[in-house]
Structure prediction request, 341 residues.
Amino acid sequence: MPTYRPTMYIEAFARLSSVTHPPANWAQLRGLAFERHLHDVLKAQLLQPRTSFRPSGEQVDGSFLHRGRIYLLEAKWTKDSLPASSIYAFKGKVDGKLIGTVGIYISMAGYDEDTVNALVVGKDLNVLLFDSDDWLRSLKSADGFARVLDYKLRAAAEEGTPFAASSGLLSASTAGDSLSSVAIVTEGRMDEHIVQCLIRRLTLQRPVRVVNANGAANLPRIVRLVVDLDSAQDVIAVVDDDAAGAAAELQLREAGPQVFVVRADPYLDVALADEIRALVTTMDAYRAKPYDARVAIVRDAIANMPLPALLQNATIRRLLKRLSDIGAWNGDGLADLDVSN
Prediction:
């Protein structure tokens, strides 16, 4: 049996991710190359993949065998995150197969928040979602994909979530060494980027990781999962100040005494409106830009402002005060401010 070489597959994935001057038909070429890469990895990890078959007029990207059970597979590498309609088309294929069949959807561009919310509130959960971080983690050992899949299956069974970030595996496998860690769970990808930019500005006194729940409806499930994986860590949930955020906050009241809620005012990027307008004039101009461009604007807005100026922002101040209260940050600059709001 050939030895699994993680570096070979990680480098192959990196080559697909970082083409400097792509040809005009690169999207199609990359899709075909990714399909071959996917097959090679699953085969090397002894999951017996079968790719691209057509039952009765529909196309399924593939299937594989894990612990005696067949899973259907679909993978996409698109420019933008996938909407709910894409997942529901795949779910329709899964629904038409043997009772109990589970589908695995892999999207390198991630998913719209509405996508995960729609699956969470649906009647039947038979599709699990992977993103690029999940796939990269799957490449790192000979049983990498199986470990990530088992983690997601358990999260789906225990918490009803179709999308559990595999970063949770870190706390599951190192709970004995990470008793002083802090997890910040956000509603979406943009919130995740903003919080990561913020904590990079701080001198932290405890390890802090950021987990994207990919939707308000999914957030309480992810928080409970994080708590179950490591009950000794503190968890901060950042929710939007809207109806969905209020519903999530209500559910979080029973998540445990180590769970704290911070409300954005009304959303994290809107809370940074003054800082963003300094770079792009208006919020409408900001919203009109592609997602990656908006991330770059937010990153620059946070990186270029002195920390005392950032602390004037009420939402950021609430989040950083919570980090200070639980001993994850020394609170430098908070003492001179009104932190009651």
Remarks:
- The chain has 16 helices and nine strands.
- Residues 171-179 have pLDDT under 50 and may be disordered.
